[in-house]
Amino acid sequence: MAHSTVISTPATVSRSRHTSTFYNDVVQGLRAQQKYLDPKYFYDAPGDVLFQQIMQCPEYYLTACEMEIMQEQSAAIAAAFDEHASDYDIVELGAGDASKSVHLLKQLLDNGVDYTYFPIDISGNVIQLLEDSLPESLPGLQFQGLQGEYFEMLKVANDISPKRKIILFMGANIGNFTPFAARSFCQQLRRHMHPGDLLLTGFDLKKHPQLILHAYNDDAGITREFNFNLLRRINRELDGNFDISQFEHFPTYDPQTGSCKSYLISLCDQQVRIGDNVVIKFRENEPLYMEISQKYDPVEIDQLASLGGFAPVARFSDHRNWFSDYLWQAI
Ligand SMILES: C[S@@+](CC[C@H](N)C(=O)[O-])C[C@H]1O[C@@H](n2cnc3c(N)ncnc32)[C@H](O)[C@@H]1O
């Protein structure tokens, strides 16, 4: 009989190492000719709360679509797992609050599958939240939260348990890579998997451009705040002095490439200090690139599977066909 275990991660990234990596990445991005920030840094404690609010926004259809898939098709997904694998653990990359995956985890428990759930997230706050909430929401679940980067923590999960792995990569996290980077991410992920392991990935599909753009420009301005929070985080953690009022949130969507990109536009010529030693100059109207949310069509997704070293197994879509979770098997 499975029981609830909460094991604190042996691989928590140390605070000072984390801060210096954050500092180096921020300075590198702000010194680049085309300024950018790495979106993985959106997720500190306030960022996690803002993202959970984004997921509730009526404009952000992605959550409702994938929630529908998880609530209505978990039995079919679990059956597909069992058809293609046995004696497995579940690893979730970028688990967030796991509010959608809990439906699938519950289905597996109801089916009597004996598995351990390894949620991986760069946000320590998120891992703590899961450690607090999962014993109550899923009594009997065996799990171990792993705080850190995807691949580093996937190695830890493989070291802890020799079982076959089924990896969840949901919520269109894959969309936070350019198509080129998504290809190399899938190839790298494949190298961390064994032949026969399964991967369930969420893809937001191409649809009417206005619907997509609106999802990243909600009327309540929560996505704007989510972007501004990263500047605030730099001010808080790296002793920066960004003046948020001098930046404007500017999302774009190109229906030909499927790339939805968010920028912050500098509203004037200005200088931003980071710590004692770094001064960054912004020109009026200069963009700071924050995030991509790439949209796909089924042909592109099949190409990605094949270039990554995976065979397509099954596809689960919401009733409007706006979003799909694809199940692939490592070849
Ligand atoms: C867009 S949220 C999606 C959360 C969840 N998968 C869902 O569908 O609701 C992305 C999550 O991935 C985490 N994340 C982003 N980059 C990461 C990285 N490189 N390594 C580990 N976690 C990461 C973030 O902290 C955040 O919780």
What does the model show?
- The N terminus is likely disordered.
- Strands 1, 2, 3, 4, 5, 6, 7, 13 and 14 form a nine-stranded mixed β-sheet that branches. A three-stranded antiparallel β-sheet has the order 8-9-12. Strands 10-11 form a two-stranded antiparallel sheet.
- It contains ten helices and 14 strands.
- Helix 3 runs parallel beside helix 4 and helix 7 crosses helix 10.
- It has one domain: Vaccinia Virus protein VP39 (Rossmann fold, 3-Layer(aba) Sandwich), CATH 3.40.50.150.
- By secondary structure, the protein is α/β, with parallel strands linked by helices.
- Strand 3, helix 5 and strand 4 form a beta-alpha-beta unit.
- The chain is globular.
- Helices cover about 40% and strands about 25% of the residues.
- S-adenosylmethionine binds next to strand 3.
Structural class: alpha/beta
Approximately how much helix is present in the residues? 40-55%
Extended strand count: 14
Distance between the termini: 33 Å
Number of helices: 10
What radius of gyration results from the CA coordinates? 20 Å
Q: What percentage of the residues does DSSP assign to strands (E)?
A: 15-25%
Q: What ligand molecules are bound, each kind once?
A: S-adenosylmethionine
Average pLDDT score = 95
Q: What name goes with the CATH superfamily?
A: Vaccinia Virus protein VP39
Ranges where pLDDT stays below 50 over 5 or more residues in a row are: 1-13
